[in-house]
Write a structure and sequence with these properties.
248 residues, 6-stranded mixed beta sheet
Length: 248
């Protein structure tokens, strides 16, 4: 079993959620469940002003879904619903949530970045949606991506299924800023957190709710989209595609 974890640290008034998987920081069912639970707890913590979602290591920020878990119908279904839970936990949070994107991001990881209120990225933080190339589709993450980058950019990103440079993500609104390296990303996140801490908490909460206006119906829609992803993941096409990838 791959080593994996989701840690939570509160430094001053900032919650820092850090995930790790030795397989390229890909997200398993257990990790997604843990992320959602910790996000909900941070939302209830009155001493926390903002939340930073980050990952360990110096290479990939997130390898998307852990594809090994598609081998079992039970874990496959939990995997897609795990992304649903994380997206809803971000939407429902009472805190502004910041993504620290230090490296490449694939699939579901791109959707999590899109759900965050801010995303600061390094110059190595290219993105890719690989779902259609596997025979599925980025159904679950389509809602936060459409909200953040728009329908045209989402269609391009999904159908081309090729790497896009950080500048592309910045120009289309996925990234708030692109900086030289992880150290510069950290400085900018610290600056933003200090700004957030200096504002009226109640006003911030209400403003964040206003920014998320129009997402009230996401719960049911995401559940249907997660079920659709699961259905496709169990098709012979996807199973054969995954088998061929494992043989490489």
């Amino acid at each position: 079993m791959a080593q994996e974890l989701v840690s939570l640290e509160i430094v001053r008034d900032i919650g820092r959620l850090c995930f790790y998987n030795e397989k390229g920081n890909a997200l398993s069912c257990a990790m997604l469940e843990d992320l959602a639970v910790k996000l909900n707890k941070l939302s209830e913590n009155t001493k926390v002003t903002a939340v930073v979602i980050m990952s360990q290591g110096n290479s990939a920020f997130c390898g998307g879904a852990l594809l090994d878990e598609l081998d079992s119908p039970a874990t496959a279904k939990s995997l897609f619903h795990g992304f649903r839970k994380v997206i809803l936990a971000i939407r429902d949070s009472s805190k502004f949530i910041i993504a620290r994107v230090h490296g490449k991001t694939v699939g579901g990881g791109v959707g999590i970045v899109a759900a965050c209120d801010f995303a600061f990225a390094s110059s190595q933080a290219s993105i890719k949606l690989s779902e259609l190339s596997l025979g599925i589709a980025p159904f679950v993450i389509s809602l936060p991506l459409k909200r953040k980058i728009g329908l045209a950019a989402l269609s391009q990103l999904a159908v081309e299924a090729e790497w896009k440079e950080p500048l592309w993500a910045l120009q289309h609104g996925l990234y708030t800023e692109v900086l030289k390296d992880a150290a510069e990303v950290d400085k900018r996140i610290t600056w933003l957190c200090e700004k957030l801490s200096s504002h009226n908490d109640e006003a911030l909460m209400e403003f964040r709710r206003a920014l998320w206006e129009g997402s009230d119906n996401w719960s049911g829609r995401l559940e249907r989209l997660a079920d659709m992803s699961y259905k496709f993941s169990q098709s012979d096409y996807v199973k054969n595609r995954l088998f061929s990838l494992k043989k490489r």
